[in-house]
Amino acid sequence: MESQRIYADTSVFGGVFDEEFEVPSRQFFKSVQQGVFNLVVSELIRKEISEAPQEVQDFFSEMLLGADVAEITFKSLNLRDAYISAGILSPRWSDDALHVAIATVSRCTMIVSWNFQHIVNFRKMPLYSAVNTLQGYGPIAIYSPMEVVGYGKEEEEI
Hints:
Rossmann fold; 9 helices
């Protein structure tokens, strides 16, 4: 079975060094290293990480070796704009909308994030998928790393 393409936004990399999010973030990246997930990152993450503490930058560089890097394309910019036009996010939070758009356009099955305000938000998640459908894309699943770290174990036990 082929591993799922999963987009991890900047918050997940920072989560590795945050006491509150450390354990599930590290478990998520361990699953990536074990081949459970195919990690997808973007040029947007690379830009945001460049402003992060050095330990986050170093960890990102290490994980980048096995990751697919999605470009920021006109398609992803247009999808971001569609999210903003639909009122999911305001222009102030356009980079958060761009993360979701890049993941969608890059054919990821899922995006993981610790951003509970703009991305992992039960009110916004169905709206992203609705706009995706209107724009000719499929839905995207959105979870926190905590929700996906046990992925695969249940299947092995069945």
